[in-house]
Sequence to fold (776 residues):
Amino acid sequence: MLVSTLRFISRGWVSSFYIKPRFHFTFYGFGWVKPFGEAGTYALFAVMAVAALMVTIGLLYRAAITLFFLTFSYAELMDKTTYLNHYYFVSIVAFLLILVPAGRYFSVDARLWPQSKVDYVPGWCINIFKLQLVLVYFFAGLSKLNYDWLIAAVPLRIWLPANSQLWLVGGLLTQLWVAYVFSWFGFLFDLLIGFFLLNDRYRGWAYLFVLIFHLSTGWFFKIGMFPYIMIFVTLVFFSTETHLKILKAIGRLFGAKLQNVAPDKTYQLPSAAKEIVTAVLVLHFVLQVIVPFRYLMYPGKLYWTEEGYRFSWRVMLMEKGGTAFFHVKDPQTGKRAEVINSEYLTSFQETQMSTQPDMILQYAHFLADVYRKKGLQNPVVTAESYVTLNGSGSRLFIDTTVNLAAQQETLFGHNKWIRPFKDNK
Amino acid sequence: MQSCKKSGADSGSNNNSFDRKGLLSNVSTNIILPAYTSFQTSVNTFNAAIVAFNAAPDATKLTAAQNAFIALYKQWQWTSLYDFGPASQANFRVNINTFPTDVTQINANIASGTYNPNLLANLAAKGLPALDYLLFGVGADNNAILVQYTTDSQAANRKTYLATLTTEVKTRTDAIVSAWNGSYKATFLSADGTDVGSSLGQMVNQLVYDEEILKNFEIGIPAGVQSMGTTYPTKVEAYYSKISLQLALQHLQAMQNLYLGKDGLGLDDYVAKVNAKYSDGRLLNDAIKAQFVIAQTKLQALSDPLSDNITTNNAAVVAAYTELQKLTVMLKTDMTSSLGILITFVDNDGD
Fold:
């Protein structure tokens, strides 16, 4: 995460994503999460980086990981535009890490406070991570169980040929049968890998597949740190012996030796904390299982309406693009103006907004505010937006007759003003 | 469980291999480089005309300069699309063609005799739009214009300013042509992927961006589309020389030319190869080609000066705008989505 945060800062993304935009698409209920101005936001990221460094070396572990979790989650909550499943994953892992004593062995803390050192932890400290990973992989696989992915091989049949210039494999990527192989392999890999990783006999082979899968997706697609995060986090499935070997190797690099100071000391949660931690973990995992299914509450095609799409491990699942034109009408004069989105949104925000209805609604409310400040009394805001999904060809996305300024933002409500996918005439 | 209905249209092709290198080679050799070279030639002709005019301003030389300017502005329409690589690094497009021009700023520069080309405030006081004003707008007719360069109190400063702006256009153009003839062409050919930094990615993004300039700034804003019907006829491109519509038509033709790859490999071939479909079942390539023609027809129904049309025949101007808007969607959404190209001007991770 230290690498990721430094990379984020060095690419100028703190500025382009959080400082430059004049408007942010905050999450429902989190409208109070705002950037702190230029200096403040950089400070937030600096704290994040320092916290990540401290966690890595194991200094003041609990404080550091809590700080990292808070700063990282805050940054992600600032704008839906930058939502990525792997950022969600990092937040979850950071949260789980707060609950475990990861700073008690092979860490600076263990050096400074040897009496806090433990050699053994209860099984749940490791198993919650295994469970989380199994859920992530499994749901990612489950989300691929649909016609588009398996039978039509979209979006891979669009994305793979776009990489035809790659060394050695480029020519293969343009073949349709390869898109099918990748689609089915991706589906089966995601669905089953968690279970193979749990099994002692197959773990080694499973991890080889993990490496191949993540390295190749990292090569073909622009998905940032995700493959590398997964490669390293998946190591949690390996046995204690393996981990000790890894730690010894790292130790040699720094000239440190692994010590078994307290062979009989096992970490124990204080009994007051036990109940709370149990409750928190139970709640967390119940949510992890339920949340990806919430899309069932809504009518319509999930990929189109995106109601229930986020936070469900739907990773790299669809090719969707759109262009949205907004009109503001003055009901008193009947005259209307088309908005130039680039005046208010960055191109990244505009791209993300044009295919996600909740963001379209938020932007419409923002525009209504802008025009109210200009003196319009009851601005009517409509969206003429065209979206293409998995090669369908662009079609109207939102009902152009609905005044979005008057529509409510809700957490679980269905947005009736999204036009059905097939109704394109 | 999940949706069991399909989303996309069937893409029948089993082999989606397309010669992107060939496309880049064709476009750079047969479209981009000739466009820059022709522009450079026009700039040189124009520069010579200005030098002659400044040496001894008279009616004949004024007309010669004006004609050279019109040819130059038309040639610009074939050059503005390629604002990536050297052009992007030099902010070529905004330095050559920020319009509408700021007459107040121009006159302030002339009166003070100082001009800093790097000032942001001067972006709207330089380039072709400023030259448009200086050659066609400083007087009600050519006689009145001539006076501004002969007997007017500011005549000397004005001539200097005219020369300075012309030289600036020439210098910037020469730099771009050199860069393309130098190492950039090779760079362009080697980045043959479809990612954000690739040549195709940049080229498509700039094509879309430029089309939106045509749609919004040359037609839409002046026609009142963004302002509740209040029109701004003076905001058209080439307001003073009154060739706005001719320029718009040239601009559209240039975009169509790029899309078709002239006579060789172009985006049309790529879109056809991947068998992309439009929402009404037609091949996307056919839909795009047809839309270029429709937009052209709507524009041809208008006449210069466009600024007058905007007032007297606003509905027809808005009709042209609507067709340009449909073209925007086809290029910005349908075409890019079918080729796996991202519309973005910034780097970011995907998911």
Remarks:
- Chain B is about 65% helix and 0% strand.
